[in-house]
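re the bet — no i am not wrong, look at it urself. input seq straight from the record:
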Amino acid sequence: MKKTLLFILLLICSFGISTAQSLEEVLPGQVGLDAAKLKNADSIILAAINKKEIPGAVLAVVRHGKMAYLKAYGNKQIYPSIVPMDVNTVFDMASCTKAMATAISAMILYERDSLRLQDDVNMYIPGFVYMIQPNRKANIRIVNLLTHTSGLPSYAPETLIKKRYGTSNPTGFMHYIDSCKRDFEPGKSMEYSCLNFITLQHVIEKISRKSLRDFAKENIFDVLGMAHTDFNPSGELMANCAPTSMLKNGNVLRGIVHDPLARQFNCGISGNAGLFSNANDIAILAAALQNGGEWNDHRILHPMTVKEMRTVPDSLKAFGRTLGWDMSSHYSSCKGDSLSANTYCHTGYTGTSIVIDPDNDISIILLTNRVHPYDKGSVVKLRSMVSNAVAASMNKEKIDLGKK
């Protein structure tokens, strides 16, 4: 009887949850890619390593829900000793956290009728507005946070916040964001801002009554079987992390978020940064988004929500930002030049990037720790060149069809 009850309990606990998964690996030619042309991406990445722009990288190419290319290059650590890169390396995803965790979590609440895109942020954070004049205000809406059109400044002064609120004080930090000077009236311009997604994190947490870490884990990562994705990694996950920058005391960050705001003030769990993941897990997420929000019979979003998420809102077309992703702003060069016009993407300061082309059903995941160890590497050109190389490996008819 006890064994039966235990089985039932385990079944209930695992309902809707997928175990650790990975995409089916196929040869490039099986999904319409030219393997010889894909090797141009190898040459581009190896050249960047030789020029010391990055210590190493992992490239994953997903097409038609299958892993068509997965390769590691160079080293994941060059200080204090050299450790080779491998395809299972876990990376500090930096600002890709915004798209992978925060935006998707917000859209899950949107699907549940717990949140509207046109909701005023001050419904959840009282007094969170833009003051036009002393007695005249404009409301900042959830859609403004998602598209970086809120008017919040791009970042926050660390020294001032430390002096005023100390460290490891998310409530105090949010009070700073709530009261800081806005740069423009909401909806009138676009300024990429980490503060938008930290604010959105607080909205998600207030509605769900869970931390962003727990909500994203339960509703995204566990559902899809992304067992190597988490905030504040520990154990084996931390052991597999690629290190990032060296601190003033000579220690190198490993498994501890690189972004100062997330690390110092949000205890490593932050709407703007803090997520760690590897190429296999991100490939699953990309495959799910390409498949209308579902992968391996496990759904995180409705197809209409996915489509809305990768579409720039009509009233904000001039700014090129979708609901948590980038389509055509000046930050979208990682897409390269040849993918379809509907391609959307996101990048991370540490050297990570995710590019998803829904028309050609292809995703390009390029992971580097370009900040290791001295925060001097560069990947802006590299990302674009790799995307171009992958695009060139596709059947030409597919590319042309995608651009119509």
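see?? The first helix runs from residue 2 to 13. told u. also DSSP finds 14 helices and 13 strands in the chain. so pay up
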